[in-house]
Design brief:
Length: 114
């Protein structure tokens, strides 16, 4: 085929291109507005809700009982067994003066086996 310049219209092509560019620009602006509105909603309006969810997801107290067993040597003699152990903390009462008094004596607590 012969490529003839009479079949092309530069003014019409520019007008079509300008229309497509305008529609594309409108779509991009609308999408940017939607993204910014969603960002504002998540960061500003619903911040406290997500902060609470984050704290609830992060802090979990799960007591884990260790799986322990008896330890024997190669002759079958018991080397280590399971015995309950306890920690005792001694807390001093606040001081009433510079000298020693009954308030400076440690307090004794009864520890029960659980």
């Amino acid at each position: 085929m012969i490529h003839d310049a009479a079949f092309t219209d530069p003014a019409r092509e520019r007008k079509i291109f300008a229309g497509r560019l305008f529609i594309t620009a409108i779509v991009v602006v609308v999408m940017a507005i939607v993204i910014i509105a969603r960002y504002f909603d998540l960061q500003i309006n619903r911040h406290q809700n997500f902060a609470t969810h984050s704290d609830n997801n992060r802090v979990h107290v799960r007591p884990a009982t260790p799986s322990r067993g008896l330890i024997y040597d190669r002759n079958g003699e018991l080397l280590a067994d399971n015995r309950p152990t306890y920690n005792l903390t001694i807390v001093y009462l606040s001081q009433l003066g510079n000298g020693t008094s009954a308030a400076n004596q440690p307090t004794a607590h009864h520890i029960d086996e659980r």
